């Protein structure tokens, strides 16, 4: 939800790696990234991809939206 208009923002990509998301795995780009996110939610932080950066970035502070559950 962005109240600012005029700022052109790119299409939302995979929240894990930023690649274009696939319909089959949205909002992720692949099962791998979906699995990574799932692992995080499960409390496991051992399945992070190599592209993962430190979680110290201010963009990820605060509660984030829960991904759609597929079951
Ligand atoms: Zn991805």
Question: How many DSSP helices?
Answer: 1
Task: State the major sheet.
Answer: none
Look at the helices and sheets and give the structural class.
mainly alpha
Oligomer: single chain
Residue runs with pLDDT of under 50 for 5 or more positions:
none
Which molecules other than protein and nucleic acid are bound? Answer: zinc ion
Q: Estimate the mean pLDDT confidence.
A: 76
**Beta-strand segment tally:** 0
In N-to-C order, the SSE pattern is H
Distance between the termini: 27 Å
Q: What amount of the residues lies in strands?
A: under 5%
Radius of gyration: 13 Å
General shape: globular
Fraction of residues in helices? 10-25%
What layout of secondary structure does this protein have?
Elements: H1 31-41
Structure report:
With 71 residues, the protein is mostly helical. It has a domain of 33 residues. Helices cover 15% and strands 0% of the residues. The protein has one helix and no strands. The protein is globular. The N and C termini lie far apart (27 Å). The mean pLDDT is 76. The site of zinc ion (ZN) has 8 residues, from loops. The site of zinc ion has 8 residues, from loops.
Question: In brief, what are we looking at here?
Answer:
Helix content is 15%, strand content 0%.
Question: Which features characterize this protein?
Answer:
71 residues, mainly alpha, 15% helix, globular, binds zinc ion
């Amino acid at each position: 939800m962005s109240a600012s208009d005029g700022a052109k923002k790119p299409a939302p990509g995979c929240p894990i790696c930023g690649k274009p998301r696939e319909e089959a795995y949205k909002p992720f780009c692949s099962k791998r990234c979906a699995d990574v996110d799932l692992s995080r939610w499960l409390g496991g932080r051992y399945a992070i991809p190599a592209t993962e950066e430190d979680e110290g970035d201010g963009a990820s502070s605060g509660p984030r939206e829960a991904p759609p559950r597929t079951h």
